[in-house]
Amino acid sequence: MGFVAVVLLATAARAERVEPTPKELQGVGIDEQLGARVAANAPFKDETGRDVTLASYLDGQTPVILTLNYSNCPMLCSLQLTGFVKGLRDVKWTAGRELRIVTVSLDPTEPVARAQASQKRYVGDYGRPEAAAGWHFLTGTDASIHAVASSVGFSYRYDPQTKEYAHVPAVVLLTPDGRVARYLYGVVYSPQTLRLSLLEAAEGKLTNTIDRVLLYCFHYDAAAGAYAPVARNIMRLSGGVVLALLVALLAVLWWREAQRRRARGAGS
């Protein structure tokens, strides 16, 4: 019994022990800043070399998806953006129409031509040529990049030995006026999660009743990184639908009975 207790205590100690963060990943992560305003006035160049700011894409009507990557990333950025595009393909909304996408390069030395090649690649993968007008790849100075990253709580780290940037794979949903609405993490993006996140970021500027119902029935589960159904809301909605159907049925029955009475009265 004493031996078992010692083993259990040792196991618990190992379970509670937190391994130190590797040096390469220290200072890397996301400190969520929901509601914070993005640094919209930091200067950049877009994939054509035109001088722009993030404010150039904030029109007060259209939600914006912000990603922070860089074209020379050996693996992670490619995996993330490929997964992101795969999810976008099954979302009805299209970049350049109902949403905008802005990819800010973490690398201040990235040339405009490289950003342009990246835009061509991912818009091509997206399969919607019109999205070229709605997905922009920006390059800028270290100060501009850090200003945007810091404003949304995105921390990254440059490793001079490998000449790579350590960062978290994530996209940031911005409201039409540039406030942080939602963070989505990973290299796989569910079309439903993307759609509902965009609806949420659009701040109710919607006319589609079905979309409103979807937001009513689902809530964002931060632990799972996705939207989950809310049983109570679904039950309320289901109850409302049943009640409406019952009222409609009773109305039809009442109307038919009234018609029969009129017919009998006319025939007598």
Shape: elongated
- Report the sheet with the most strands, covering strand number, pairing sense and barrel closure: 5 strands, mixed
CATH superfamily of the largest domain: Glutaredoxin
Sequence of secondary-structure elements: HEEEEHEHEHEEEEEHHEEH
- Residue windows where pLDDT falls under 50 for at least 5 positions: 1-16, 204-221, 230-235, 237-244
Distance between the termini: 97 Å
Q: Supply the helix-strand structural class.
A: alpha+beta
What would CATH call the architecture of the largest domain?
3-Layer(aba) Sandwich
CATH classification class of the largest domain: Alpha Beta
State Rg.
26 Å
The count of strands amounts to 13
Q: What's the CATH topology name of the largest domain?
A: Glutaredoxin
Q: Name the helicity range.
A: 40-55%
Lateral arrangement of strands in the main beta sheet = 6-5-4-10-11
**What assembly state would you assign to the polypeptide chains in this entry?**
single chain
Q: Total helix count?
A: 7
Explain what you see.
It is built from 7 helices and 13 strands. With 268 residues, it is of the alpha+beta class. Strands 6-5-4-10-11 form a 5-stranded mixed beta sheet. A two-stranded antiparallel ribbon has the order 1-7. It has a two-stranded antiparallel ribbon with strand order 2-3. Strand 2 (44-45) and strand 3 (51-52) form a beta hairpin. Helix 2 packs parallel to helix 3 (112-126). The longest helix has 37 residues, at 231-267. The radius of gyration is 26 Å and the shape is elongated.
